[in-house]
Amino acid sequence: MKKSTMLVGLAASAALALSACSGNATGSSQASAGPGGPAADGGTVQVLANAAFSHLDPARGFDGGVNNFYRLIYRTLTTQGAAPGAEGTKIVPDLATTTGTPSDGGKTWTFTLKDKLFFETGAPITSADVKWGVSRAWDPELGIGSPYAKQIIAAPASYQGPYKSGDLSTIETPDAKTIVFHLKKPYADFGSVVAQNTFVPVPKGQGAGNSLDSKPIASGPYKISEYKPGATLKLVRNDKWDKSSDAVRAAKPDGFQWTFGLDPATIDERMIAGQGTDADAIAGTVQAATVARIQTPQLKQRTMSGLGGCTTYMGLNTTKKPLNDLKVRQAIEYAVNKQTVRDAVGGSTLADIATSIQPPTVAGRVDYDLYPSTDHKGDLDKARALLTEAGYQGGFTLTLDSRTQPKMQAMAVAIQQALEPLKITVKINPIDTSTYYEVIGTPSQQKDMAITGWCPDWPSGATFLPPLFDGRNITAKGNSNLSQLNDKGVNAKIDEIANLTDVTAANKAYGELDKQIMALAPVVPLLYEKVLMLVGSNIAGAYLHDGFSGGIDLVSVGLADAGK
């Protein structure tokens, strides 16, 4: 699934939940040199984080924070560029020499690997290793991350990955440098699909069980030298990475050091003070209480801000009573006071109010509001009328899944208070941030509602609505369709749009589909959150990357003075 994190501590710890995440928040980034000018070679970048990464295994992780991190240790056939603004969301070759060659009317795609590609062990990266890594996406236990490989590449219905089912014949490796994918149907954006984490090469025969979660096998410029889950993670240079084969990763620092489990308020205090190694630090979005304190000229020089390119929303589980009743879901749409939800995250400085599923940064998005209320404070009269029609005027109880992160808990309380006048009792179910997406992405563990979020994986409407609302893609694990909506009309429209060859026309059609879906009220759009970050005084080369929930692009950031 794809989750938006809003980058509290640059880990899967903040504002959104489902989404792997890339956004395309146009105009959100600073100049490419960022604070401190261009980065120097050497030194260690410190990262202060509230929560640990969801997974180090690229087949499992799928949120904005960990996707950004993966680019330091892993490579894929293609990847997003390294630049602020629209340049950063362009798909460029990575392990492959090009963004792919289609044939057979777009149902077959061929990629050729570059020279000088090696794992951290010194072993060459071959097409068989790429195939092995991709095949892991079908494993029911491991393949809980990005869903696109399983959805688009042809495979037998019974296939369960290389460890259980062996070879996948629909991916061919005629030689060590060539890999050929056979798709279920033509897919014009397949060159973007292979930038997903599931296309990380894994040495053939390796990676079973939890092995990559504890010890990744690096193909990028850094490798893990020390990892204490939930506490610290240290990266050092991977001396087997050849810069001449990689036009994307600047990899200026000698290493990175993550410190997990820090209180968000403590992170803000340390970043403001900027003492010692904190001058070399980056972190996530500042807390609401800190916003007023960073308005001084000195601190503003170290501030970066912009849209995150994601939508924070509340999923309504349409398989649970009484949420299986459309009128009940519509009543909740009207009842939620989005002003108090925005206040919970810090007000207009840190978020805009959402009315559609797709954020303003998605091409073709339509601006509309099917459930309007004065100042977005909710319309309890309309909500009561709908509940009366549905026969639920006496109220009921719902359970709301939320992360154990202060901002998320504050949002949950705002929802709870908004529904209370309707005699709807909301029980808040706190779930640890590091396991949150996995829990809510498992339908058997999912409760009635969940506060989460989504960011596009590449700049296309195809990566927003189909993953969230195509009922044919609901899975037992790694499920991104939190509402479990399986509507024939929506599914048919998704197929119709997928057959369009004009990307502009397809994106326009997705904008209209947004409204069609919202008429069914499977989710309550809440916020389009913003990123507001304070970096250390010795940080350089920093810019906000539109493809990673608006976070600082880790492959380009470094230190202004590596000798300090």
TrEMBL record:
Q: A single GO CC term, please?
A: ATP-binding cassette (ABC) transporter complex
Q: Name all Solute-binding protein family domain ranges.
A: 90-474
The protein's organism comes out as Kribbella antiqua
Which keywords accompany this UniProt record? Answer: Signal
Q: List the signal peptide residues.
A: 1-25
GO MF, one term, reads: peptide transmembrane transporter activity
User: What name has this protein been given in UniProt?
Assistant: Peptide/nickel transport system substrate-binding protein
Q: Which Gene Ontology BP annotations are present?
A: peptide transport
